[in-house]
Amino acid sequence: MAQVTVTVNGRSHTIGCDEGEEARVRELAAFVDKRALELARSIGTASESRVLLMTALLIADDLAVCYEDIERLRKAAAGISPAGQRAGEVADRLEALTARLESALAAPEGASATPAAALD
After folding, report:
1. 17, 114 contact by CB (below 8 A)
2. What confidence tens digit (pLDDT) does each residue in 58-114 have?
3. Which residue of 7, 15, 39, 44 has the lowest C-beta tally within 10 Å?
4. In angstroms, rounded to a whole number, what is the distance separating the alpha carbons of residues 11 and 94?
């Protein structure tokens, strides 16, 4: 198992991941860090745990919107041409990927599922 040190909200964290997934973990951490820093700037003084919790809630909200969009696409694609059917297939694939990402993000530290592995 590889380890990657990432910085989120100004603090370094060492994260375990599968071999070869280091770059993806860094990419995901950079995304979280960007969102956390934007949030910290907008709300001012707040504890690290509060900033990270609020960041997680914002990302969860984004994910919920994606699920709503998937459902809208699926309904729009029902009974439509082959292109519409393809849109439904794309929605199914997107839903599967978001579910895998959700699962990986919820995995306890040290678990074999990593955010990077969830996106393969």
Report:
1. yes
2. 999 999 999 999 988 888 777 666 666 677 778 888 888 888 888 777 765 555 444
3. 44
4. 32
DSSP 13-41: EEEEE-TT-HHHHHHHHHHHHHHHHHHHH
Torsion over CA: 38, 44, 45, 51 (sign): negative
Taking the C-alpha atoms of residue 64 and residue 66, their distance in angstroms, rounded to an integer, is 5
Q: Are 98 and 67 in contact (CB under 8 A)?
A: yes
Burial class from Cβ neighbours inside 10 Å (0-12, 13-18, 19+) for residue 94 reads middle
Compute the distance between CA of residue 12 and CA of residue 84 in angstroms, rounded to an integer: 46
Cβ within 8 Å of residue 92, ≥6 positions away: 74
Closest by CA position to 70, among listed 55, 56, 90, 86:
90
Query: Do 104 and 115 meet the contact criterion of CB atoms below 8 Å apart?
Result: yes
Q: List CB contacts of 88: < 8 A, sequence separation 6 or more.
A: 73, 74, 77, 78
